Amino acid sequence: MNSVNTKLLKKPEAMIFDMDGTLFKTETLLIPAYDRLFTQLREEGVYTGETPPVERMLSSLGMVLDDLWERVLPGEDKKVHERADELLLENELTGLHQFDTQLYPGTKAMLEELKSSGVRLFVASNGLEGYVKGIADAHHITPLFEELYSAGQYQTASKVDLVHILLEKHGISSAWMVGDRSSDVEAGLQNGLTVIGCAYAGFCGEHELKGSHQIIQSFKELTSLYLKAEEQ
């Protein structure tokens, strides 16, 4: 764990979590759902090419959906992107009950500990509403959160906007933004929050978490950071 800034951290009123690559081990659901998606697209005649490398999809997580599909399927018609969206969500929601999907080790216990310490917990994800809420429901963590926010539900163009809505709606004055993508760092910094970068998913590039106040190598380190942080 990078501890350079630990003494500067202040205990927050709330923590706002990304979902993919932060709480949820995305590849346990995405890889089988992704393979099935492209089989279906070809069967429907919507898409005739090869299945793009799944690494391209994994490295695009955290983007809003329009940008994600432009990266995974560049040059394809918007109708292809929209159908891919629909089928991937269907496969993921079904897969939550068919595949051995996983949260990162210790996630549920750590969330319970933070909540019992009085921290208000939220999710802010660039994913679709059904996907974000489906993961939380399938892994029995929904009751731990005050609310689950998704770009799909609020039709936000960026996570900066989504987090701003969350902060305004709940009257939050201090929070930690916890995530594994540059979009999480940007959302936290532009909203005046402390940013905790998560480096354990393995999807992000070398500079993805640049600007984070602290970088952790496992989710379990978050509780330790909270306990060491100074009172407001």
From TrEMBL:
This is Phosphoglycolate phosphatase-like HAD superfamily hydrolase. PANTHER family: PHOSPHOGLYCOLATE PHOSPHATASE. Pfam families: HAD_2 (PF13419). Gene3D superfamilies: HAD superfamily/HAD-like (3.40.50.1000), Putative phosphatase, domain 2 (1.10.150.240). Transmembrane segments: none annotated.
